[in-house]
């Protein structure tokens, strides 16, 4: 993903890549050469912040490093565009909400799969149905990544499902209330943790959103975006996860790619937010509930019970208060009323 972001940055007319930080300096220098950039390389973010005085940081570290890097940049006065997920835990994400507020700088999470012309068209088709009673996603892929994903406890939910969960919030214009989830690992799976899941979310408009997926499903694979179906009082609409959108209300359409999509779309929204001051859809405070959907699904699978998302957010808030953080962050956390109007989510 680091190299993918470097290619996107160097291809954009809106930004200039001035520095790359990586623990493996030789690898970073090779990547800089590969994309044809003239960028400084350093083993630390701090060194690059001093040397380049950038207008922004794009954080493509592993999830466990997101909080540390984001907070360092924010308190250096630099806004951040960070790869999803914001953090491995909801409590750490809550800390980052407080850090962005305390530092007075934008922290945006790149939910790159929101940026598809076909998804925007599907959202319009879903709106034609009235309030949908049911939204479903089927996701079936068999990637062999190797590395950290193969060792995760919940690789599908934690590393991939957030894309679909976030898209469900976008499509419905509603927020999740609770979830019941079951996960398992098929006998042929090459993952150590559970690579299959079914989760049923209740949204605050009454819609049920059902996600069913497997990351060890060879043959007849779905799009990386999954296959979608929404049913409401006015009919049904489907999206194949690529360019085909179909509605019983307004027919079918093949939607070509439009402008910047995926991480290029996230970058475009980030740049626009910095230039205009408008809050982007991926601002950390707005993204927390997508991450909460993931953590709630994991906890439901582990406990065998339905998990309430507001209760989970309140627990995360108290966990955040118990963790060692900068004084400015703690002051911001303490200024929020517990699970009140000022706290995240």
Automatic annotation (TrEMBL):
It holds the Pfam family GFO_IDH_MocA. One of its GO terms (molecular function) is nucleotide binding. Residues 9-109 form the Gfo/Idh/MocA-like oxidoreductase N-terminal domain. Residues 151-237 form the GFO/IDH/MocA-like oxidoreductase domain. It comes from the Bacteria. SUPFAM superfamilies: Glyceraldehyde-3-phosphate dehydrogenase-like, C-terminal domain, NAD(P)-binding Rossmann-fold domains. InterPro entries: Gfo/Idh/MocA-like_OxRdtase_N, Gfo/Idh/MocA_oxidoreduct, GFO_IDH_MocA-like_dom, NAD(P)-bd_dom_sf. This is Putative dehydrogenase. It comes from Nonomuraea polychroma.
């Amino acid at each position: 993903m680091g190299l993918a972001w470097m290619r996107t940055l160097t291809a954009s007319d809106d930004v200039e890549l001035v520095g790359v930080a990586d623990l493996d300096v030789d690898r970073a220098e090779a990547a800089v050469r590969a994309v044809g950039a003239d960028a400084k390389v350093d083993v630390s973010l701090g060194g690059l912040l001093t040397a380049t005085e950038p207008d922004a940081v794009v954080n493509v570290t592993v999830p466990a490093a997101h909080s540390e890097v984001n907070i360092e940049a924010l308190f250096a006065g630099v806004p951040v565009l960070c790869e999803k997920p914001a953090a491995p835990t909801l409590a750490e994400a809550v800390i980052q909400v407080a850090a962005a507020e305390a530092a007075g700088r934008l922290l945006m999470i790149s939910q790159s799969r929101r940026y598809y012309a076909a998804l925007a068209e599907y959202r319009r088709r879903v709106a034609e149905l009235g309030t949908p009673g049911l939204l479903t996603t089927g996701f079936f892929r068999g990637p062999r990544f190797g590395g950290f994903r193969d060792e995760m406890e919940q690789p599908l939910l934690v590393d991939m499902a957030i894309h679909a969960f976030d898209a469900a919030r976008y499509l419905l214009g509603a927020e999740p209330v609770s979830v019941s989830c079951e996960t398992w690992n098929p006998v042929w799976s090459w993952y150590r943790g559970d690579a299959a899941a079914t989760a049923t979310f209740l949204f605050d408009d009454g819609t049920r959103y059902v996600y069913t997926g497997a990351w060890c499903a060879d043959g007849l694979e779905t799009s990386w975006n999954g296959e979608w179906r929404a049913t409401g009082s006015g009919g049904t609409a489907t999206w194949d996860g690529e360019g085909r959108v179909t509605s019983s209300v307004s027919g079918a359409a093949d939607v070509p790619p439009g402008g910047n999509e995926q991480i290029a779309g996230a970058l475009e929204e980030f740049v626009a937010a910095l230039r205009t001051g408008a809050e982007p859809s991926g601002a950390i405070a707005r993204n927390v509930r997508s991450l909460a959907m993931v953590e709630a699904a994991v906890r439901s699978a582990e406990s065998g019970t339905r998990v309430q998302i507001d209760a989970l957010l309140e627990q995360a808030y108290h966990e955040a208060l118990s963790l060692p953080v900068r004084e400015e962050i703690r002051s911001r956390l303490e200024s929020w009323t517990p699970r009140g109007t000022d706290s995240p989510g």
